[in-house]
Fold:
Amino acid sequence: MSEQIRALGLLSGGLDSTLAARVMQEQGVEVLGLHFSTGFCLADRHRILGNRSNPDKPYRNEALRAGADLSVPIEIIDIKDEYLPQVVLHPKHGYGSGMNPCIDCRIFMLQKTKNIMEERGYHFVFTGEVLGQRPMSQRRPPLNAVAKESGLGRLLLRPLSAQLLPESIPEERGWVKREELFDISGRSRKRQMELADQLGITDYPQPAGGCCFLPDENYARKLRDVLAHRGTDVTPEDMMLLKVGRHFRLSGEVKVVVGRDEGENAYLQRFIDGRAEVWVDEFPSPLTLLEGEPTAIDLETACRITARYSDGRDEPKVPVRWRIGDHEGQLTVVPFQDDSELEELRI
Structure:
């Protein structure tokens, strides 16, 4: 063939998508990687707050890193504003173990990719999906549903499992060789790691359940709480605030968010507008934000929580500062003595 075959690939920077891109390159396909930013990615948190589990490890965008390693250009596409109302809040195919709308997420991203494919004259789309790897989205029925509902149909190729799936148009037309694709299935990553060694891919993040907040039970619990008390009247900013801090529900209208360290305190500063704030001057302390219209009892409880997580927690009483709009004051309170007292309030 004299024509250069060009394909778009969804590239997260994880092992599977990196391998899929390399396999396409090995077959002479020109690859452009697309990375969709949903607002729910763990990498966004690391970028803003640093890596809590390994503070000495600098943040890196794995998609850009993988693109550099493969010499594949990467386009990052921001879909935050559409993704929340269209995918997270109203998933046609429901949620997974947490609040993860994995099937709808895949369909939405691939619809966007199909539009780009058609606008720019690419031949087909590929992903790093592996048959049977994820219980919600990578069984045969959802894989078929994703291909159909995205509009891509047989123009969607999954190189790592292609030999276990019906023949795609890229294979049928000879754009890629089916015999040089793979029959990987299941949750083990052993074969992917062996293939990475064969293809000279050495730098990739260890598999850890994906890069999204939504399957995480702690995050999902906070999101369910927001939806239960506010319905779908939520914004991407609300979703960002769920990523940090300790969260406590004081009433149907009032919630407290308590920073856990200096980085989270700094992050919470950007959300002060429209919220009450509580802090301790005399001791290092968290910044605490209150959502809603707190009563006097709510404010006192928030002050006691803040004192509990300050360095003055062992003092008999702690003076705590508060600010609500243009009003500011101080309450001297007895800190909660241990976390067990807070469990009924904790989200």
Observations:
- The chain has two domains: 6-199, 244-342.
